[in-house]
């Protein structure tokens, strides 16, 4: 999701997004001639990052922006987005 325009290119619902799925999303976006984001917010510490995802991000000039562990203010925006998206999806059903 773009922090400024509040637009998002892809939504994945689930408990986690594995590196393989993130790579698939990046490929889907580029295949559809959409621009990749300049930065992807990653809420895990760097020791969990996939080397393949890191390489793909580097090849596509996408910065992986890691949130600091145990620093909740860094995740407030995405937590708010996740909560509102969840509420919106639940209202539909």
What does this structure look like?
The protein has 93 residues and is mainly alpha-helical. It has a single domain (19-92), classed as 2-Layer Sandwich (Nucleotidyltransferase, domain 5), CATH 3.30.420.10. 42% of the residues lie in helices and 9% in strands. It contains 3 helices and 2 strands. Strand 1 (39-42), helix 2 (51-59) and strand 2 (63-66) form a beta-alpha-beta unit. The model has no long low-confidence stretch (mean pLDDT 68).
Task: Give the topology.
Blueprint: H1 19-31, E1 39-42, H2 51-59, E2 63-66, H3 76-92
Parallel strand pairs: 1-2
Helix pairs in contact: 1-2
The beta-strand count equals 2
So, the CATH homologous superfamily? Ribonuclease H-like superfamily/Ribonuclease H
Which word captures the global form?
A: globular
Mean pLDDT: 68
- Provide the domain count: 1
Number of helices: 3
N-to-C series of helices and strands: HEHEH
User: How much is the radius of gyration in Å?
Assistant: 14 Å
Cα separation of the termini: 23 Å
Strand line-up in the sheet with most strands? 1-2
State the secondary-structure class: mainly alpha
| CATH architectural group | 2-Layer Sandwich
Question: Which CATH top level class fits?
Answer: Alpha Beta
Largest sheet, strands/sense/barrel: 2 strands, parallel
Low-confidence stretches: none
Relative helix content: 40-55%
């Amino acid at each position: 999701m773009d922090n400024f325009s509040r637009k998002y290119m892809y939504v994945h619902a689930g408990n986690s997004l594995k590196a393989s799925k993130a790579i698939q999303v990046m490929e889907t976006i580029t295949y559809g001639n959409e621009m990749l984001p300049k930065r992807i917010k990653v809420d895990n510490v760097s020791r969990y990052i996939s080397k393949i995802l890191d390489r793909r991000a580097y090849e596509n000039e996408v910065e992986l922006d890691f949130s600091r562990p145990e620093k909740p203010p860094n995740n407030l925006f995405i937590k708010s987005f996740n909560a509102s998206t969840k509420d919106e999806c639940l209202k539909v059903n």
